[in-house]
């Protein structure tokens, strides 16, 4: 199921339950990227913080 199909299903479900419809997919992408970029600029990595690594199962 892609994002459009999921949005259609969520909109139908919200209409049946009398709830507000969800925002369309991709509506907040630009704002989210801008916020992440701002966070990256204001919180640069330092040498004292270890790099987080994913755990791998043996």
Short description:
The chain is an all-alpha fold and 58 residues long. The chain has helices at residues 3-17, 29-42.
Radius of gyration: 19 Å
Span of the ends, CA to CA: 33 Å
Written as H for each helix and E for each strand, in order along the chain, the element string is HH
- What is the residue-averaged pLDDT? 85
What overall geometry do the principal axes of the alpha carbons give?
elongated
Described by strand count, sense and barrel closure, the largest sheet is: none
Point out poorly predicted stretches: none
Strands, count: 0
Helix content: 40-55%
Category from helices, strands and their pairing: mainly alpha
Strand percentage lies at under 5%
- Count the DSSP helices: 2
List keywords for this structure.
single chain; 58 residues; mainly alpha; 2 helices
What does this structure look like?
- The chain has two helices and no strands.
- The chain has 58 residues and is an all-alpha fold.
- The protein has helices spanning 3-17, 29-42.
How is the secondary structure organized here?
Elements: H1 3-17, H2 29-42
């Amino acid at each position: 199921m892609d994002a459009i199909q999921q949005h259609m299903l969520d909109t139908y479900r919200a209409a049946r339950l009398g709830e507000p419809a969800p925002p369309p997919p991709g509506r907040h992408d630009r704002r989210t990227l801008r916020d992440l970029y701002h966070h990256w600029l204001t919180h640069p990595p330092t040498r004292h913080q270890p790099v987080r690594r994913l755990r791998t199962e043996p």
